Amino acid sequence: MTSPMTLSDALPGRAIASHIRIGRLPPASAVIPCLFLVLLILAAIEPRLFTAANPLAIAPREAFQPPGPAHLFGTDQSGRDIFTRVIYGARQSLLLGVGAVAVSMTLAIALGLIGGLGGRITQRAVGWTLDVLFSFPTLILALLFASHLGNGIGPLIIATGIGNVPGYARMVLGQVVSARHAGYVEAARALGHSPARIIRRHILPNAMRPLIVTVTMGIGQAIVWSSALSFLGLGAKPPAAEWGTMLSMGRDFVQRAWWVTFFPGLFIVLTTLSTTMVGRYLQRRLEGRLP
Amino acid sequence: MSSVTVSAAGTAAGLLSRRRIGSAGRRVLSRVLAAVLVLFASATVTFFALHLTPGDPVRAVLGGPTANPSPATIAATIAEFGLDQPLHVQYGLYMSRLASGNLGMSFSQRQPVVDVIAAQVGPTLQLMASSIVVAWLLALASVMATTRRHPLLQGLGSALETISAALPQFWLALVLLAIFAFGLRWFPPQGNQGALSLVLPTLALALPLAGFLAQVTRESLELALDQPFILSARTRGLSDGAVRWRHALRHAVLPGISLSAWAVGSLIGNAVLVEVIFSRQGLGRVLYQAVTRQDMPLTIGVTLLVTLVYILASAAADLIFVLVDPRLKAQHL
Amino acid sequence: MMTLNRWRQPARTTSLLASVGLAALGAAILPAFGADEPVKGGTLIYATDREPTCLDPHVDGDMPQVFIAQQYTDSLVSQDKDGNIGPWLAKSWTVSDDGKTYTFKLRDDVKFTNGEKFNAAALKANLDHIKNPATQSSTAGGYIQQYVKTETPDEFTAVVTLSKPYAAFLEVLAQGFLGIEAPGALARPRNENCETPVGTGPFKIIKWDRQSQIVLERNPDYNSAPPTAAHQGPAYLDQVIWKFIPEPSVRFASLASGDVDVIEAVPPESEAEAEQNPDLKLIIADRPGNPTNGAINTTRAPFDDIRVREAFVRSADISSALDSVFFGRYKRAPGPLSAATPFATPDFKSLYDYDPERANALLDEAGWTEKDANGIRQKDGKPLTIHVPIGDFQGPAERSLWEQIQATAIGTGFDVQLEPLGFSEWLDRQATWNYDVIPEYWNTNTADVLRIVLSSEFLGAAGSGGYHQNASGFKNAEFDALVNKALETQDPEARRKLYYDAQKIVASNFLQVLTFPQSTRLGVYKTAKGVRLEPSLSVTTLYDAWVQK
Lengths: 291, 333, 549
Known about the structure:
Chain B is mainly alpha-helical. Helices cover 77% and strands 0% of the residues of chain B. Chain B has a domain at 113-332: Orthogonal Bundle (MetI-like fold). In chain C, 58% of the residues are buried. Residues 1-34 of chain C have low confidence and may be disordered. Chain C: It is found in: Periplasm.
C-alpha cells in the first residue's frame, strides 16, 4: 500500500534526455529477477508443473506442520500445503497486481490526456478533480468502492485500481504536460501532423516511457494492498490461494506457526523486487535507444 | 537540463501555483478558494458514496449479533439521525450545518464529531509527522551513502530500498513487534504514551515510505550527477562531498518533496493497520470504523480533516520546493 | 498515570523513560507468589479486545458493554452457576399467579456513587429508561419488550407489570445488560450518560480515553455484593485500568510479560503456552445462550428442503476443524443451547455428527443427483451453491473454520461460497434474507433464547429494512407453542420439560450448523488474584480481585 507512484515526477524530462547510458546493473541483476518472473508466470499458467498437490485439500490432522521434506513451506491451519498454495497463488496474485495496475493506468491515462492536452479550464478541472480524489486516503477510496462492487477477486482488482488512480493520474498528467511542450512535438505540429497522430506517435510514447518502472512496481504494491484489505476482513474470497489473503489469514497463528505468514509474505516481496528490477532494466534499455 | 527541472517543478508545484506573475495576495486567495472547493467536493462525494452503499446506519448502530431492537426503537433512531427525510433534504441540512462549522453528531460513537476528532487527532499527526521525517532521514542516508559508489554498495542500497518499498506495513509491524517488543523488549508493544511507544509504529510506516522516497531520490540524484553544472563544479575543484550535498542533492530531493504531500494522505490509510496492531489512539481506526458502519457525519468529518492536512501539506511542499530549487527561487523571489 | 505504561525495563536501556520509572520500582519488589490473603489497594490492569461504543449497557447492548457494566453496576437479582436466581439489589420478590406482576422488595441501604439513593423509584427509572425508544436499546430493551410499568407503593417496594407472562424475566434481570444506574445520571442526555454512567457497583467510572482505556476507581462505600461474590464490603483494588488491545498476539505478549495483569480473549494459539507458564493462569467458561453457528435459511431453495439441510449439517466436519484451527481448545457445541444455559440438554448432539455417507444419501433422495466436473451436485441444471456472508468482525480463525466447512462440504457436492463483507453490508444481507447460511450467535442466560432466534415472533419486519433475529426463518406452530408455554410456566421442572421438547424440534429440523459455544477466556498473570466470572453471562468481575506486586 505504499504508493504506486514512483519515479514519475522524478523523471519528467527523461524521455527527452539525450544522454545515453549503458545499463549500470550487471546483467545478473536483470536475469535473475526475469527468471523468477518467468517461473512465476509459468506457475500462474500451469501450477501443476511445480506441484502435484491440491491447494484446497484440507487435512486438519496435518495442521501446522513446520517446513520440512514432506511440506517444503510447512502446512497451514487447515493442513494445506503452503508451498502448493503459494504456487497456485501466483495466478490470483499476479492477476490482481496486473489487473489493478491496468485499471489505474487506464483511468489515469484518460485523465492525464484530458488534463494535459485540454484547454486551461479542462486542465484546471482535472487538476481539481485529482485534488479531491487525492484527499481521500487510498484505503478509504478503495473501501467506498469495494462496498459497491461485491466481493471476490474482480471487485478487489477494481477497488485497488481505483484507490490508486489519483497517484498515477498525477504522474501521467505531469508527463503529458512536459511532453506537450517538448521540441519534437512543436516540430511535429509545425509539420502539420494531425493532433491524433501527435498524441499517438509522440506524446503518449514519450509520456509513458518513464512510467514503466512505476507500473512494474505497482504490480507488487497492488498485491500488498490486497493484503491490507484482507487484514481488515475484506479481500479475496476464501479459500482462494491469494498471497495477500494468506498472509493476513496467518495472523492468528503467528506465534505458533510463523511459516503460515512468512512464505506468502516472502513471495510478495520477491515479486515486487523482481518486477521493479526488470522494469528498471527495461527502462534503461529503452532510454539507451532514444535519439 | 532545464526541461528536467522546470517540468518537475511544474508537476510538483501543482496546477494551483503555476509560474503565474501576480501578486502574492492573489495567489494565496485563489489557493484558499480552490481549497474550499476541494473541501466542499470531498464532503459531497463522501455523503453520496456512503448513502449509495448497501445497508443502513441504523442497523449498524442497533444491529449485529444479540440485537433485538423494538420497532419503536428503530423508528426513533431513524428520526434522530434524520434519515427519514428525502436524500436531498438530508444533504441540504447537512451542508448548511457544515457551512456554519457544525460537523454534527457521530452515529456510532455517540459523541459530537468534533470531540471524536479532537481526542484522536494528536496521536495520528504525531505518527504521521514522525513517519515522514524518519522516512526522509533513512532515504537520504541510503541514497547519499550509496549512489554512484562502489557497484556492490550501490547494489546493496538499491536492493534495500526496493525491499523496503515492497514490505506490507502490517506484516512489518508484526515482525517489528516480535523482534523488538516481545523478543528484545526494547520498546513497549502497545499504547501511545511516551516517545518510545512511537518508535515501532513509526518504523512500520516509515520503512516502506523510505524505500519509496529513496528510489525516487536515487534516480534523480543519478540524473543530477550527470548534469553539466556538476561537472563544472567538479572542475572548479569542489570535493565529492560538497558536490553531492550542496549541488546535486538540491535537485535530487525535489520530486520526493512533491511526493511527500501525497504521502501524508496515504499514511492515514496505512495508519489504520498500524494503529490497530499497536493499540494506538488515532484517526485511522476511527475512519475505518466510520466507513464500515456508514457513520456519515464522522466519515465526512475525518475526510475533511485529511483533506485539509493534504492541502496544507501540498502548500508546504510547494513552499519547500521554491526554497530548495534555485531556479524557482530566482523566479519567485 | 505512572502505572499506565508499566512494561518492564531492561537494565541496559539508559532511559529516556523516566516517565515509566515505576517499572524499575516494580522490578525491585520481588513478587511473592502464592499468598492467599487478599491485599487491599493497588491497581489492576485489564486488557480486552473490543471497545464499547457506550458505557451504559442499556444503550445498544454489545458484549464489551456488559463487561464494563459488571464493574460499576449491580443487578436487581443474581444468578448462580446452576442458573438459580438469588437476591442482589432486590431482597425478595413474588410473582402473581398470572405471571404478569412481579413485586420486588428492595434493599434500603444502597447508594449510587453519585450519592443518590437506590429505591423503587430508581428501579422504575431504569426499566423505563431501557424501554424508552430514545435510549436505542437493542439488547436490554429487546429482553423486556413485555414491560408495561412500575408502581411504587412504598419507597422500597416496586410492582412491575408485564403485558404477558414472562418466566425468563428474573433471568434477564440478572444480566449486566440490565444493570441498575442512578436515575439522576440516566436523566441526562443519552450520549452524556454513555460517557460517565453511574451505578451502585464496586467501582466507579472515572475517565474514558477513547481507543485507549477506561479508568475505574473503588467505590469506598460499596455494601451490596451479590451472594455469588467471595466477600462483602468494598472491593480490594484501588483502581482498575481497563485497556483496549485489539491485536491478539500483542495482548497475550503484554500478559506474558506482566505489563497487564489480566487479559480477555486469550488467543487459542497461546492457551497451551499459558498453561505451561507458571506465571499464568487461564479462566475459561462457556457463555450461556445460542452457540456460535451458521443459521440455515429455510425460506429459500435449496434449504427449504429439510433433507438438504441435514445433508449440509452432516457434511461439515466441525470437530476436526475446531481441533486444527483452535488448537484443540474449542469443543463442538452440544446443541442449540450452550451447556452453560439453564435447561440445556446434550441429548441431540449426535444428530449433528459428521456423516458424509448419510449426507450423500439424503442429497440423492432430494433429487440433487447430477454432478458437474468439479463434483458439485446439480438439480434441474442448477448447481448446489450455498452463499455464506462473512463479516469483517470474524477473525482469521473463524474464517478458517468456515473454509474447512467449505472444504468438507464440497466432498458431498456442496459449492459453498464464502463472501467477505464489511459490517454494514453483512447486516444488509442479513436483513434482506440474502444468504443461505449466515454466521451468528446469541449470548443470554435463559433458554428463552430459543424463542428469540427460532420462533416465528422474530421473523422480522421490525422496521429498518427487516432486521430479524430468527435468521433461519423457522416457522413451526408446535415449537412456538412450547417456548411460549415455557414463559407462562414458573415451575422449573415443567420448564425443563418444555425446553427439552423445544430443543428436540430445533435439532431435528437442522436449522443451524452448530460450531463452538461463545466463551469468556481470561489469562491471569501471577500478580492478580481473585479474578472470577459472574455466572449470569460468564462476565469478568474484578470485585473480589486483588493484586500482589
